[in-house]
Model the fold of this input.
Amino acid sequence: MTITSFHPPQRTLMGPGPSDVHPRITEALARPTIGHLDPEFIRMMDELKSLIQYAFKTSNRLTLPISAPGSAGMEACFANLVEEGDKVIVCINGVFGGRMKENVIRMGGTAITVESDWGRAVDPKAVEETLNTHPDAKILAFVHAETSTGARSDAKTLCELARKHNCLTIVDTVTSLAGSELEVDEWGIDAIYSGSQKCLSCVPGLSPVSFSEAAIEKIQARKTPVRSWFLDMNLIMGYWGGDGKRAYHHTAPVNQLYALHESLCLLQEEGLENSWERHKLHHQALVAGLAAMGLEMLVPEEERLAQLNAVVIPEGVNDGAVRQQLLAEYNLEIGAGLGAFAGKVWRIGLMGYAANQTNVLNCLSALESALLRQGHTFTPGEAVKAAISIYQ
Done:
């Protein structure tokens, strides 16, 4: 069999990620590849570091993109900060909090879990009680924006509690970066990781991370080597840090880094706070349209993410049939539920370049068509009208 070139279909990506990639970013990917130690590439690296600092709202000197997806950013934080026997309090309110716990265990730490209902924010009172019960805890880890449920936790309050109890914080912002308010320095976050493929509208495969001075001190004071050679910040600092000549660590994904640079230039042009507000506006229009179809949101309004909308599937509606129809007839992707919510919710993403009026109205119209075929009762046309009323 002769295999020919792969040409993917043109989709509208409104699932939990990846999101639609901005045309300027796909153009950046096609720029000439140069060496990863080329002086011009190193100049671009310095700009990229500054742009990531802007997105995170931090002046942390150890701020860089890990050359792998957000899951590697997560592992980088835990591998560098957790040593054998360290007690780590892990907040679990969805799938990705559970992955944090798994990382603690694999690094030889002791995971103390604070369980919250899926679809709800992490409960600060339960966290405080656990911190009081475990005064020897070294780290508090939690997910700011739980991608599996669309719940947003109060990162500022949780970081305040951690500082009060002399704990460092590890925070997952894979879905929140550039889509929700996020203030690394002001909130006192010590280690943070995200992904390129969500609200940054970039291609998958990179993970922006940042470490505070307190986190760097803990890394440098380790009694044992970091368990991952590739993710050891002591080594990576030689490539991403300092002036002049860089120490070779790995061959960076040159063109992907061009793409991330371009995506962050777009963010800077729009303005970080404007990006947060744009995501809120399109979320409000989407929710109004969904309500007009009689659909309910999983997460209470005050705890909801704007960029990841968990919608309760009505009784009698076939989850897979609806998603398949949207993909086959409208080239529109929405996400299925994960874990306990598999078959019970849809996850509709409004991330980055995909968070726009055209996508919201097309999604509502397509969903109306699919639900009518499933026998769901509502007044056709009202969803789009409800969304337009928000925009007007």
In short: The chain has two domains: 23-269, 272-391.
